[in-house]
Design goal:
The protein has about 150 residues and is an alpha+beta fold. The chain has five helices and four strands. It is elongated.
C-alpha cells in the first residue's frame, strides 16, 4: 500500500527520475532524510523497481521502428523466446494470448536490417510486421491511486 506522500514522490519521479532529495522534500513537505527512507522502503517493497533514462533512437541512427506479431511454429516457443531475448534490436516484447504468442517492438537502422532480423525467425515462427509511422502515446504508467496497488 502507498499513501498520499508516496504518491507525490512516485509522481514526481515519473516526470523526472533525476530529482534530488532536496527537490523531493520540497514537493512532499518531508525532510531529505525522511524522503530517502521512504524511497528506500518503496524500493524494498518492489514499488519502485528502477530509475531510467529515455533516449531518442534516431540519435543512434535507428530510423525505423516496427511492431511484430510472432507466432512460433509447433515446438518452437522457447527457441523463439530465446531468439527475441538475444536480439538487442527487440526493445520490448510481450507474451500475449490469442493466435500470436508475442507482440514485439523492434528498432532498426534500415529495412535491410529489419529483414535480416526477421529472417532469423522464419524457420521457427510466422511473423506479421507493421512499420511505426508515429508514436501517439509513449509507454507510460496507468494512473496511480494511493492505497490501491
Amino acid at each position: 500500500m502507498t499513501d498520499d506522500i508516496d504518491q507525490v514522490l512516485i509522481t514526481a519521479l515519473m516526470k523526472d527520475a533525476r530529482l534530488s532529495l532536496k527537490a523531493l522534500s520540497r514537493l512532499s513537505g518531508l525532510s531529505s532524510p525522511s524522503v530517502a527512507e521512504r524511497l528506500k522502503r518503496l524500493e524494498e517493497r518492489g514499488v519502485l523497481t528502477g530509475y531510467t533514462v529515455t533516449i531518442d533512437p534516431r540519435a543512434f541512427n535507428y530510423l525505423l521502428q516496427a511492431i511484430v506479431r510472432i507466432r512460433p511454429l509447433p515446438g518452437q516457443l522457447h527457441a523463439v523466446e530465446r531468439l527475441i531475448a538475444e536480439t538487442p534490436q527487440f526493445t520490448e516484447c510481450d507474451k500475449v494470448t490469442g493466435e500470436d504468442c508475442f507482440v514485439a517492438r523492434l528498432a532498426v537502422k534500415s529495412m535491410e536490417q529489419l529483414d535480416a532480423i526477421l529472417d532469423t525467425l522464419t524457420d521457427r515462427a510466422q511473423t506479421n510486421t507493421a512499420i511505426v509511422k508515429a508514436t501517439t502515446v509513449s509507454r507510460r504508467l496507468p494512473p496511480l491511486t494511493p492505497g490501491r496497488q
